[in-house]
Amino acid sequence: FYLFIETSSPRQFGDKATILTSYLNGPQCMKFSYHMYGGGIGALNIYANNQSIFSRSGNQGNRWISEETSILEGGRYMVEFEGVRGRSYEGDIAIDAISFTPGSCPFQTPKPPTPRPTNPPTSSTNPPTQAANCNFDNGDTCGYQNGAGQFNWKVNRGSTSSSGTGPSSDVSGRGFYLFIETSSPRQFGDKATILTSYLNGPQCMKFSYHMYGGGIGALNIYANNQSIFSRSGNQGNRWISEETSILQGGRYMVTFEGVRGRSYEGDIAIDEISFTPGSCSANCNFDNGDTCGYQNGAGQFNWKVNRGSTPSSGTGPSSDVSGRGFYLFIETSSPRQFGDKATILTSYLNGPQCMKFSYHMYGGGIGALNIYANNQSIFSRSGNQGNRWISEETSILQGGRYMVEFEGVRGRSYEGDIAIDAISFTPGSCPFQTPKPPTPRPTNPPTSSTNPPTQAGTVVVYHFYNFLVNTTKSLYTNDDHMPGLWSTALSASKVWILTYCDVQYLLLGTCLEFGFWREFLLNVITQGVGSNSPHQEANDKCARQLMPNGLVFDEEEK
What we know:
InterPro entries: ConA-like_dom_sf, MAM_dom, MAM_domain-containing. With about 550 residues, the chain is mainly β.
């Protein structure tokens, strides 16, 4: 066999095809043969590190011509063969028998390379994105090249050689995958890197990874030396599907880096790598059991994908919205603490969008769900919303490029699991909705929507009613009853102990609706919540500071 360019229609004058070798290091003697026969021959150009090392043009006769040339490059580089289409279909160019030997060629005075033209021609036959796709099921690396590091990625089928780590099969259960073998002589911190073939412009990359074992290190992925994905530690004995947007312009390769952890139980595997031009869709129903490329952000813990009920009773959904699939949620059991936050970010969006989603906020210790676009608040809910999925839509009025961030805040107990599902985006604002301008993210955001209030006029007690900010102005002269969406829940049929003004007092709620508020105020302001309270005097003082003018309800506010 040999390699050639086919210059028949639809090829046109000046069209180019390029192909690159695997990586080389330092000076090399390159030997090869070429064939350039026909009345419409264009040119054969060869480059190393964008430096021209060989060029021929025009008809060279119906024969193979052997050539050798010295490459004087230092460091690491690839050699690029460029075939240029001439003036007719009689322009096929072929190459064959390519070899490299370290050092310069004998019996040849090396010539210094010349720079590639400052305006390099673009190639109409540039390797397509699909060339970088690989499921390794041919038993090879699809042209991916091992890079710098202490060891290499390997193709494997079935289980890895070490027990207690690595997958038992590829994603499909039938084929091959790529992995790092972390047994001796590998040491902590050793790295293996492998690079894809070239890609052009923004891409949506999808892949699966397996990181199981007590000594797992890290999987890092880079595009043009920019980190686009990172995971570390044991992720469980399962394949996890992932997608991430690569926003690079121009031409680049993607690097997969596997880092050896603290023991031989650190095998990491990847499979099913594919690229699609453009950024990834931000729509997600989580029913593939993954996060659709959403990335966990800053916070004390992470959102998790789940199916069925959450581990805690009395909180969380029993299924996803459809009743059949997966959803995303925050697990608020120990070691989580009051005010802890979990954030997750979608892939990139552009311009105004109508966002639709469903949320579930059920439990006696629910904190808050906040959603931001470009650090602008676009949605917020706090407290128990009942054991049901609630569908919501909101217009995002951002221009340019941004991500949407979902923030879950842990409330006062483990009964605070919050879930989201069925997230979708449609360009433009939502129909039948008057878009509201977003509000800036608080510069010093409260640690929780259920934090007890710390200044007069910020208390709210509710059970069946969910009061919204800027809707009721009844508790204090210049404040509404829920600034910043701070709240605390009180059942009208139970006895609760609340802390306020550094004093504990009992609230005995026995009635519903606004009558409950009146009884609450009556108890606190006039009685200190009972004649037997050891803190009656302090309670009276605290209540008078809170509500010096009492509580007034207008009809339209009920």
